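User: Predict the full complex structure for these chains.
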Amino acid sequence: METIDNITENIIIEASEGSTEAFESIYKAYSGFVYNVAFRVVNNIDEAQEVTQEVFLTVYRKLKSFKFKSSLKTWVYRIAVNMAIDYARKRSKEQDHTVLYEDYNKLSKTIDPVGEEDVREEQEKTISTLLEALSPNLKVCIVLRSIEGLSYQEIAESLSININTVRSRLKRAREKLIALRKEMVKNEM
Amino acid sequence: MKCEDVKELILTDYLDEQLGKEQKTQIEQHLTTCSDCKEYELLTRTAVVEPFNNLEKHNPPEATWNKIREQIEEERPQYEPENSFADLILRIKEFLYIPKPAFVVTSILVLLLVGITVITLKPDNQKVVQVNPESQIECINYLMTVFDQEGANGNDDFGTSIEDYFL
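Assistant: Here is the predicted structure of the two-chain assembly.
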């Protein structure tokens, strides 16, 4: 039997017929990716859990129509990425990013990283601030490439876009990040 | 290679190690001679690569799966696939299943065949009755003389008791 990322075709069929055990295998295989992408894109733990839940319920409901044309991994990634972008778009309308950057400035001046935990916390704050400066479309490209380590081809398939669009989005995102990082370093000094 | 092209590749394929061997060597050679591009490469690494290195991965809490499980158990198809009457019906249906287009095409063909047969074949047991026009005229003449004679005799009754009573 053909295997797709340790998920056999049988598991997919059983899950589509309502087997909780089979669906749990699918959840275990992809929940880490889905949750991490959601967390980085929406930048909020509660919403990341909500996105993860919605993604897997959508996967469960649509599993019967899965045609095995693409890998299950790509299919799940596509659902996850689109849902995370939708959530981020909804939230970005409600939130002012400059507030986050100001928060970062206050925090970075009060935290003087000494221990490993502090360094990690500092890194998390930097990443959060950098990502929040990007639009959902650019942000997701950075998350998929720089955090999840997907190849350009995999990013293109997950986002259903051309590989050159992936390149141009990464370029634009990184140019923005460089400008922001320069500003952050200047403020820290 | 122009600095502009090199910088563009530094931002994308070069830092992401997506370049072929030949192109990678070209850029590395350029970087040994161009201090501006070398500086840009270092800046890019510090600003957009290093912050993402060794970033902690998060896992969803157990509660997320519990909520998903509860929901999918509510939505689970009602039939039990093993040893059930519904399963038997389903198997019979699958066994007798004819794909929709094939069924439609077959039905149309059968209807066409029946139609053509009915139109073209003349049934053997139906003889065409040919009536001689002379014998028809003879028959009509005979009937007319009989009615004329009866009318002349004034004999319109049939001799029944009920006629006797009324007439």
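The two ends of chain B are 134 Å apart (CA to CA).
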